[in-house]
Amino acid sequence: MKTENQRAWFFVLPxxxxxAFNALVPIMTVVNYSVQETFGNNxxxxxxxxxxxxxxxxxxxHAALGRQFMFTFLILIIExxxxxxxxxSMPRKGFWVPVCxxxxxxxxxxxxxxxxxxxxxxxxxxxxxxxxxxxHTLGIEYDMTQDxxxxxxxxxxxxVWHWTSLVVLLSYAGLVSIPDAYYQAAKIxxxxxxxxxxxxxxxxxxxxxxxxxxxxxMDSFNIYTEPFVLTGxxxxxxxxxxxxxxxxxxxxxxxxxxxAAMSLIYFAITLLVSWLFYTLMTKDDAK
Amino acid sequence: xxxxxxxxxxxxxxxxxxxxxxxxxxxxxxxxxxxxAYALLGPSGCxxxxxxxxxxxxxxxxxxxxxxxxxxxxxLPPDQRNIAQVFQFPVIYDTMTVRDNLAFxxxxxxxxxxxxxxxxxxxxxxxxxxxxxxTRASHLSPDNKQKISMGRGLVRDDVNVVMFDEPLxxxxxxxxxxxxxxxxxxxxxxxxxxxxxxxxxxxxxxxxDQVVVxxxxxxxxxxxxxxxxxxxxxxxxGHFIGSPGxxxxxxxxxxxxxxxxxxxxxxxxxxxxxxxxxxxxIRPEFVGISDTGIxxxxxxxxxIGRHAVVETMVGDTAVKAVTDHANLTQGEEIHLxxxxxxxxxxxxxxxxxxxxx
Lengths: 287, 357
Prior knowledge:
The complex is a heterodimer. Chain A is an all-alpha fold. Chain A has a single domain (58-286), classed as MetI-like (MetI-like fold, Orthogonal Bundle). Helix content of chain A is 75%, strand content 2%. Chain A has twelve helices and two strands; from the N terminus they run H-E-E-H-H-H-H-H-H-H-H-H-H-H. In chain A, helix 1 (8-34) packs across helix 12 and helix 4 (96-109) crosses helix 7 (148-176). Chain B is α+β, with helices and mostly antiparallel strands. Chain B folds into two domains: 4-230, 3-Layer(aba) Sandwich (Rossmann fold), CATH 3.40.50.300; 243-351, CATH 2.40.50.140. Chain B contains eight helices and 22 strands. In chain B, the strands form five sheets. Chain B has a six-stranded mixed sheet, with helices on both faces. At the A-B interface, helix 8 and helix 9 of A face strand 6, helix 2 and helix 4 of B. Chain A: Residues 65-277 form the ABC transmembrane type-1 domain. Chain A: Belongs to the binding-protein-dependent transport system permease family. Chain A: It holds the Pfam family BPD_transp_1. Chain A: The chain crosses the membrane at residues 9-31, 69-88, 95-122, 160-178, 207-225, 260-281.
């Protein structure tokens, strides 16, 4: 006979409380806002799914979502290959390993708003190092407060500078875990450097790369501080990414209902893409 | 297929070796005949893997030359030496199928596809992995993975030598035996020179026709398993091979006689040389228990099935004997007799008796 009792629930309770206050309560608050209208004074009117419909039909939302996907896509196709290349060219042992690792980790240690401010000053046309160099030394017109293209180049470059290290460090961890025997066997089998990469290094890096891409996707898809400090979403709306737009609606216009509906849609998209990506990447392992 | 000659080979992992101790390999001169099955036996750190990596070309020796059929290959990279190597941990290409794994070395050398298919089928049949050809290699069990890495070595029909670097380390004990006999069978079928590195005497003795015993970067003896067992050239070989190993007992030379703990010991033949540290070596299998002889006290009796290992003390020296009678008890006073034709004298570790004829 198995003794059955409900005591186990007490052990789970602390975690459940933690999760509740961490995630459930805030999300349900947002859900609550998303189906109501308020004019302040804590008075709410039932609105049903109107806000969701309004957001999904809004051109403004479509434009911001498009910019968001473009941003994430661009930084991923730059940061992932670049990170792998840097990881491959880093030394595997000796004096330079810690030097490289620390140098690589430095950008990630800088607070996000500081990164935005740094790049803002760096690119000022008359006093910023990069801005001055481009405009006055090289004679290339470069002002990201005026030119949307320059603004895009700057936020992408900034993100690449800030976060490629993450891909580098994770790939490097994957690379150093490959036993020497694999490389020796490949040498004996007459494999070219490309084949070594394709059949040994890449498969062994797959797990860490999946994690790296997922992290970079989620982070870049939800990015707010750096572009906000750097461009404020401008010039015009050209760098207004989803999160910046969301804050404009929620805090700028104080439209809590639509902002809440937009948050939930935003969250659902992030979740869906992450799930799709993870499922696709790990599909082969189950076979 | 080729004869392999190692000539005055020395290797050090240090940039400027000064003394003998700096060398991982000290002066190796060796010929491996074509088609032989060799084992390289020695404890961990004796230099056997270094030697193997030098033959395969993964390491360039500090001094000396390597010849394959009198052709100097010392400076050739591994892929141009036509060798195959199987590592301690199975190396397989995870994302490929078993078939692609086996074909990999051939495709890298631009062998025509129809010939690749034929070779792969032949090797797969030999290794009994035909039914797994289309599964992904990462799903195989360790012993099958190791078979595949062997297969990648054997698939090229022009290999000079196949080298095994402790290939059974990660294999379950009951499969070790199977894989070992498979190896032996493969050797008879493909007739390639095979070198098998191990620290396990059973593996070495069952696989090889000739066993090379190494210690601290030196070759101490080359011989057939029987030779190594019966007449170790060095106390290290005596001790390392056999279970339990040879009894190595401190002895004193007194005129023409050799004394062990005060008792005269009869040797297989006249002693050679003079001076140095002298020891008597006799295998436990040839130590008998009798009514007269060297007085000893039994300290432990372990019954290991068909016979018993009797541990005794003669004075302050432990002597082991393997006997059929287990009816001895701890503390019992007995006498030991050494079979003269199996009793050898060692001077500074090296054998110093003439063989009985």
